[in-house]
Specification:
Blueprint lengths: L1 H9 L4 H19 L16 H13 L8 H15 L10 H4 L5 H7 E5 L5 E5 L2 E6 L11 E3 L6
Parallel strand pairs: 1-4
Antiparallel strand pairs: 1-2, 2-3
Helix pairs in contact: 2-3
């Protein structure tokens, strides 16, 4: 925060005025460090270490206060969360325990058929068991053979 304040204060100063400002910072630091002053008890001055003061003066004299982040990097950084939500990783194998007693489309086509009743409703027959479908056939079952009720197997 102090470096930003230094930048704002010295933004319209000449290089000589910047040197004077740096000298003022050093003299204030010396007065704060001395034991016979009233600055150490003041709440308006921050008791910085020598390293922080050195850092402030180096940046003050070099004039490299604001390092801006590359806009392309910021754009990529903002896009990554949205892209990562679109990627779903799934295993490449099937858990046979979970697939037990389920029906795949090939088995359904081979062992099943749909009965079309006289009233316009449909029933799926598979392995001797029936499932009522209603007045329409779901598109997932559209490949299964349809038998009219008058032709239905007993």
């Amino acid at each position: 925060m102090e470096v930003r304040v230094d930048d704002q204060v010295t933004s319209k100063m000449s290089s000589e005025e910047r040197l004077d400002y740096a000298a003022t910072l050093i003299s204030i630091q010396k007065k704060i460090k001395s034991k016979d002053n009233n600055f150490s008890t003041s709440v308006f001055f921050i008791n910085d270490s020598d390293n922080i003061l050195s850092f402030r003066i180096n940046y003050l004299l070099d004039g490299a206060f604001l390092k801006r982040t590359n806009p392309i990097f910021l754009l990529i950084l903002c896009i990554i969360p949205f892209i990562s939500n679109g990627i779903i990783l799934e295993p490449a194998y099937y858990n046979s325990h979970l697939l037990k007693d389920t029906v795949n489309s090939q088995s359904l086509n081979d062992k099943g058929y749909i009965v079309q009743h006289k009233d316009g409703t449909y029933t799926l027959i598979y392995n001797g068991e029936s499932a009522y479908l209603g007045k329409s056939i779901p598109k997932e079952l559209s490949d299964i053979s349809i038998i009219k009720e008058s032709e239905a197997k007993p």
